[in-house]
């Protein structure tokens, strides 16, 4: 399969890319500053050119996107839009443009996260946008044509990310990256659609 990974140089994306390459798939890495192609997916005007360069594909995995983390009482409208523009609309716009280029029977795989259902202090923005990504996928699945599928992986706190997020996510049991990779493979290869694949420890 010809598989695009947006965020393929990040923590999740790099592990997934390595595994898919080992399985002899054609893997195309897209990043904001590195990879085979570069795109800032928060700027929707850059996305059509990306797909024109890559051409038709079988699977698009998005393992990228961020948002505001901080005190609820300090959060501003601009802070809220950080998550909306990046983790929500960045992924949504990739699907909206990607559906023009994906092969029949192809699959989109987006990424949300455990915070969608298990918020913690400071996570309001990411909790909101993760839940919105989940809702987008469940709804889009019933309207996609040509046997195109869409799923979302909702991983827990990665072991690789403990140094960054462990202090602000107390009580969240870390998940091995290898287990998260299996979640993405399930989303890509098993024929399911409209599913939220939760990967916890």
UniProtKB/TrEMBL annotation:
| Keyword Oxidoreductase applies | yes
| InterPro entries (UniProt xref) | NAD(P)-bd_dom_sf, SDR_DHRS6-like, SDR_fam
Keywords assigned by UniProt? Answer: Oxidoreductase
Keyword Oxidoreductase annotated: yes
A Pfam family that the UniProt record links to this protein: adh_short_C2
GO MF terms on file? oxidoreductase activity
Protein family = Belongs to the short-chain dehydrogenases/reductases (SDR) family.
> This chain belongs to which protein, by name?
NAD(P)-dependent dehydrogenase (Short-subunit alcohol dehydrogenase family)
Q: Which organism is it from?
A: Chitinophaga skermanii
């Amino acid at each position: 399969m010809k598989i695009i990974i947006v965020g393929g140089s990040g923590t999740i994306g790099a592990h997934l890319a390595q595994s898919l390459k080992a399985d002899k798939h054609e893997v195309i890495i897209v990043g904001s500053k590195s990879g085979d192609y570069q795109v800032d997916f928060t700027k929707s005007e850059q996305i059509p050119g990306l797909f024109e360069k890559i051409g038709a594909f079988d699977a698009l995995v998005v393992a990228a996107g961020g948002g505001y983390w901080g005190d609820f009482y300090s959060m501003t409208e601009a802070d809220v839009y950080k998550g909306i523009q990046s983790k929500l609309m960045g992924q949504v716009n990739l699907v909206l443009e990607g559906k023009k280029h994906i092969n029949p029977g192809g699959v989109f795989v987006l990424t949300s996260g455990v915070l969608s259902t298990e918020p913690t202090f400071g996570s309001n923005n990411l909790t909101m946008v993760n839940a919105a990504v989940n809702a987008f996928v469940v709804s889009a699945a019933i309207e996609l044509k040509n046997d195109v599928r869409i799923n979302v992986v909702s991983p827990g706190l990665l072991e690789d990310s403990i140094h960054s997020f462990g202090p602000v996510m107390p009580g969240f049991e870390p998940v091995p990256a290898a287990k998260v990779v299996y979640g993405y493979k399930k989303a890509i290869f098993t024929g399911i659609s409209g599913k939220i694949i939760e990967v916890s420890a």
